Each structure stands twice: as C-alpha cells, then as structure tokens.
Amino acid sequence: MDPEGLTITGNCRAGWSGRIDETVKQKGRNMHYYRDESAEVSCCYKYLMFSYNIVFWLAGAGFIAIGFWAWSEKGVLLDLTQVTRLHGFDPVWLVLAVGAVTFILGFAGCVGALRENICLLKFFSGLICFIFFLELTAAVLAFAFKDTVKEWINDFFLANIKGYRDDIDLQNLIDSLQRLNFCCGAGGPDDWDLNVYFNCTNSNPSRERCGVPFSCCLSDPAETVVNTQCGYDVRASKKGAWGAFIHARGCIPALEEWLPRNIYIVAGVFIGISLLQMVGIYLARALITDIRFSAARRQAVAYSRA
C-alpha cells in the first residue's frame, strides 16, 4: 500500500469536506429569513393609530361601567321592567350608547393597528365617516329648520317634566339645566302643571302643589345649604310676584338667547370634534395604504429571490 497515495486521498477528502461545509453554511445564510425594511409597515402610523384609539377604548369602557353602575343604583338590573315604566328620558341610555360606540371604535382601531388588520381599519374609518356625516347633516337640518327643532325640543322638555319624579337621573338632568340657564320649565314656570306633584288642581294632595322644583329658585349667595323647599306654593301667588322668588323665564327662550351669544364656542367645539374625527380617518387610511404597499413589496422581494 502506498502511504503517499493515502495521504493524497485523505487531503482530497478533507478538501471536499471543507468545501461542502462551506457550501452548506453559505446556503444556510441564503435560506435565512430576509427582512427588507422597506417592506415593513410604518411604526409611526401604527403606534399613532394605537395611541389615538386606546384613549377612546378606555373612555368607552368607562362610560359603559358608569351606565351599568347608575342602573344598579336604581335597581334596574334587578328589575328590567323599570326601563319600560319610565315616563321620561333616562340619561343612562345616552351614556350607554355613547360608551358602546366609543368602545367599538377604540377596539377596532387598536386591534386593527396592532394586528395590521385591514378589515378592522376599514370598519373603523367607515364608522367614523358615517358619524361625521350624521353630525354634519344634523347641523345643517337644525339650521335650516329652526322652528321645527325648537318645537321638538319644547315637546321633549315637556314630556320629561311629566316624568320628573320617576327617575333620579332625569330629575338631576332637569335641575342642572334649570340652574345653569337660570330658567324654569320649557316655556315658563306654568309648565310644571303637567307634573302630578306640582300641578295646581284641587285634587292634588302633594305638599309640592302649585310649586316648582328648587332648581327654579333664585340663588341666595348667603345660603350655604340648598333650600329644597324654596319653590313650595310659589305659583299660588300672582304671576307678577314670581320674579322675586324664582326664574320666570323658560328654558327654551333661555337657550335661544344663549346660542347667538356663544355661537363661536359652539362652532369651535364642532370644528374640534370634526378635526379629531378626520385625523382618525387619515391615520386609518394611511395605515391601510402602508399595509398594502408592504404586502406587495414582500411579494415582489420573495418573487425576485425565488
């Protein structure tokens, strides 16, 4: 046996083995996941969208929790028939409706951004567009049909005067409106004749007969405790004397006086809300475009490397 031949053969094998190992390593490097940064979704849009919506998501959850807490305090959750027995408007419904819409929007925006889910982002932008056009339509109709809107608000106020004592939240809402606007009733104090506790009929046994709620009374800066009986028997006297004890102006006339004086504030609030909604729509549409571009870029890179 030739020792020199064995040596040459061994060297050849070692050389081939080294080249094979090098080739395998090179192929392994080539087979490693290739990350093209140009094919990645913009972190700026992604996390701006998430940050924008997390606030609304939490706010929506808070509104829903407050609504159910209010219902539990009134015993509605134990007896759901109370909802149908209420003669006036229950403000909890408004809180729950706003909370539900806000929660759904926040959820769709947050999850859609983090998961890069185009369906959720489309739902988010579509729902905000729908709400925006509803607001715009309501504003235009309210301006075009002022008398009709005024009549509707007046009827709504009168209907809730009837149910003033039926629901504590409705009672607090009416009291707040009357205190903040220095008014009483829809058109005037006589509107409280519609309530069974305050009407002036002889058949009314209530101690509040021919009176008004305490929120109609003129405030006395010297009083530190609210006198809840200040409106008793006020309307039993002559109308000319009412102004010394209560606000003789109705809340609808008060609203008509307040709106022109604060038109810039109202317009500013409307524009601010609209801008906030448009920012949400822009972020959602920009993120959708970026996701689609990134997907197309990844496909192009994969095809070119195939």
Automatic annotation (TrEMBL):
Keywords in alphabetical order = Cell membrane, Disulfide bond, Glycoprotein, Membrane, Transmembrane, Transmembrane helix
One Pfam family from the record: Tetraspanin
Transmembrane ranges, per UniProt, are 54-72, 92-114, 121-145, 263-288
Q: Disulphide bridges in this chain?
A: C183-C216, C184-C200
Q: Where in the cell is it found?
A: Cell membrane; Membrane
Taxonomy, superkingdom = Eukaryota
- The question of whether rRNA processing is a record keyword is answered with no
PROSITE patterns, alphabetized: TM4_1
Q: How does it sit in the membrane?
A: Multi-pass membrane protein
Q: Which GO terms describe its cellular component?
A: plasma membrane
Q: Which InterPro entries match?
A: Tetraspanin/Peripherin, Tetraspanin_animals, Tetraspanin_CS, Tetraspanin_EC2_sf
By sequence similarity, the record places it as follows: Belongs to the tetraspanin (TM4SF) family.
Question: What protein name is recorded for this chain?
Answer: Tetraspanin
Give the originating organism. Aldrovandia affinis
